[in-house]
Structure formats: structure tokens, C-alpha cells
Predict the 3D structure of the following.
Amino acid sequence: MATKRKSTTKKMSKPKAQYKSCRSGGGPHAVSNAEARSADAALRKGDTKLRKIIDVCGPCTLARKQGHFAALCRAIIGQQLAVAAAATIHKRFQKLFPNSRPTPENMLVIREPLFRQAGLSRQKIGYLVDLATHFVDRTLPNRKFSRMPDEDVIEALVAVKGIGTWTAQMFLIFVLARPDVWPTGDLGIRRALERTFSLPLEAAEGKLEKMGERWRPYRSYAAWYLWRSLDVVPVA
């Protein structure tokens, strides 16, 4: 799905490689097999065009992921970078940590020149340090995310430097596996809606919100299939 990275502003963007769905995880908001089946059934029934995409792409593989700090680090590292470049820098970044597992505590003690050698800009290093500080100081309610409403998670995340609304929405979808997130500012979603539903790429946000209403309460699933449609499904 990912071909381009996004800054922390609210400009449109496509999803990043670090948010690829996985099958591991669990918890109150994890996608269950029953929920996935219900979502697919509802989306198939309610939309013939989306049904064609589901037939080719299904089933959806969204699932909750562990390691919130690592996931957010990867999101920041990948901003405004092509997928291949982001992956290379992220691997170098990981190798700076014991067992290649980034932790907030280690982030705050590793010297900046090492991060620079890994390919990180000073701005992104600043963002990562701010993220780590939020984790260490517990000003980011990371352990409560699974019990928090989507809006509260977004509000908490955007308080961190380098994290905007779009990044927070991607975190909700691909890390917390929340089922009903609708990222209207995402360029991939807009392109898919233009391709499949003839909705203009620069359509007003209100029109995109209205379009998403048809897929409640499974808008995350609809978004996942729309992203996938850009990769594998020719939709007339």
C-alpha cells in the first residue's frame, strides 16, 4: 500500500509500511475472527463495488500489535521517505538497541551522532526523543490505550512532537486494530474512492465523511480494502 511518506501536518498521505497488518495480538479491541466475518458480510451486502474488492483481497488481516513505542518510532522514521529508504534507516535504527528492540529508556541515552550515522535527521531525532520522554515520564497513557476511545487516543498522541492526526489514525487502525476509523485526509483513500466511486480526488472532507457513513461501524475495514484496491484490484 505504501509508496510515499507523510509529514506530521494534516496533508493527505498514503499509509506507511510500518503499519502493515499482522495476525498476532489480542485484547479488548483486537479484531476477532467473528468480527472480521461480520465486517466482511456487512461490507459485501452494503456495497457491490466494495464486494468486488473483497472478493479479490479478502479476508482482511487487521490485528492488534504489541510494542507501541517501536511502532510509533517507525512511523516517525518513515515520514516523507520512500518505503525502501525508510526500511533501510529503520533497520539501522533498530541495531542501535540491545536485541534490536527500541525502548524509551535506551532512546534517551544513545548519543545523537549514532542516530545521525543511521540516517536520521536532527528533526526526527528530536521527535523520537520527545516520544521517548513521553513514555518515560508516563505523560503518554500508553498502557490505557486499549481502554480509551479513539478520539482520546488521537488527542494523546498528537501531543507528541512529530505525530499528527493522520499518524494517530494509522496507529489506531494498524496497531490497535480499531474497527471504525475513517482517515479522510489519506491520499490513498482519496485515490481509491476516485478510482472506484468516481469521487474527485480533491473532494471536500464533508463528502468523504458522508461516503464513509455507509460503512459504519466497519470503516477501518473499508479503508483497508480501499488501500488494497490500489495494489491488486482493477475496478471498473
Q: What stands out?
A: Confidence is low (pLDDT under 50) at residues 1-30. The first helix runs from residue 33 to 46. The two ends are 20 Å apart (CA to CA). The chain has twelve helices and no strands.
